[in-house]
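Quick one, tokens below. Sequence please?
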């Protein structure tokens, strides 16, 4: 598994498509939860976490199952824990759960890449 993380608009998906050659990318913003089994790549994993919370589905357990079913996938997730702390409790809780899910994915990934200004920095493993 490969995790690609970083802030919004930092070139995560472009990197996955160009460097890793991934073309079949599922978008977590609007995919059906049942679609994400044996996938090549998922983008916007942070939004799938929000959708799971809104559906009263345990996002941490979902992520553990996702990792077991998609051991060769690339996962693209935005860093959402930086910046101003939101006033709304549900937004703070969402950020925390995204962080927990990101940690689960990173732990199970062979390679973790952080994108900043379109530049990949390997923070775990190595680029192929």
């Amino acid at each position: 598994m490969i995790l690609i993380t970083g802030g919004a608009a930092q070139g995560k998906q472009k990197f996955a498509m160009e460097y890793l050659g991934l073309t079949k990318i599922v978008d977590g913003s609007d995919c059906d939860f049942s679609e994400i089994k044996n996938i090549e790549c998922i983008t916007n994993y942070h939004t799938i976490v929000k959708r799971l919370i809104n559906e009263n589905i345990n996002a941490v357990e979902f992520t553990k199952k996702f990792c077991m079913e998609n051991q060769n996938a690339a996962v693209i997730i935005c860093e959402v824990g930086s910046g101003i702390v939101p006033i709304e409790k549900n937004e703070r809780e969402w950020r925390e759960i995204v962080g927990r899910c990101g940690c689960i994915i990173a732990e199970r990934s062979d390679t973790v890449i952080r994108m900043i200004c379109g530049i990949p920095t390997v923070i775990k493993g190595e680029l192929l």
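The first strand starts at residue 2 and ends at 6. The helical segments are 12-18, 45-54, 59-69, 89-108.
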